[in-house]
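Internal ticket #5521
Category: modeling
Description: The requester needs a full-assembly model to guide mutagenesis choices. All entity lines are attached below as received. Residue total reported by intake: 286.
Assigned to: D.W.
Attached entities:
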Amino acid sequence: MLAPALFFYFFSGVAVLAALLVITQRNPMHAALALIVTLLAVAGLFVTTGAEFLAGAQVMLYVGGIMVLFLFVIMLVHLEREQELRQLASQAGRGLWAVLGLAALLGLMLVHGAGGWPTAVAAAPAAVTGAAGNSERFSLDLFQHNLPAFELAGLLLLIAMVGAVVLAKPRSLPPSGAAEESLEGR
Amino acid sequence: MIGTMPYVWVAAILAMIGCVGVLTRRNVLVILMSIELILNAVNINLVVFARQWGQVRGQVFALFIMADAAAEVAVGLGLLIALFRNKSTVHADEMDLLKG
């Protein structure tokens, strides 16, 4: 019988290491694959906190949907010579200092403010996983108390979908030359 | 059972890694992936604080963050394809058309 703590350390270690790979890989395809590993590890972290439904949604939505979109676009715009070019932006040094400052602030806050919330309710994780099951409680809360937000999220996704199609499709009236190119392409 | 603070630390580390990616990388694809890292860190926090308070509401919020991330990635990749068609580049610092 493995201790639950082991799962936490395993998943968080994998998540952090793969996240470091995401931002250090030269090839965007390798970065995307590392990001998939991170997302799966975060799904594992969700399971260790009792959010089983969300872990499934993470795997299906992120790994199955968003990352497939990423991989398609990487294959569409992938440039081999890109990898020999400079990878760091011109403001990289300043950006790194800004993040270091932010990290110091965050670390200070987490060290000194740890446990500033009431701990009385901490001993009730069963209320989250519950006898009714995580998915049932989740759906009840979603559809009984957050229905307007749910509908708005659907509207947001519709708008984003239409916007993405409009942005990504070629111009309806291509400039002269582009039409011949597309004809030659056939 | 692991308490709340270790999860918050992991989320903070993931968010900082994502910030480094957003601010230092040139490739727009990697920048978008780093934003995904930050959003995932937010989700970890929401889920673990939902457990802390013994509620399920935080998990519902995390689902909304996921929908947001999907919308953001769809629009961001659409913009990237439009950029690539017009300028044949995926570098953020070559989008300087407005710079004098």
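Resolution: model delivered.
Comment from assignee: The radius of gyration of chain A is 23 Å.
Ticket closed.
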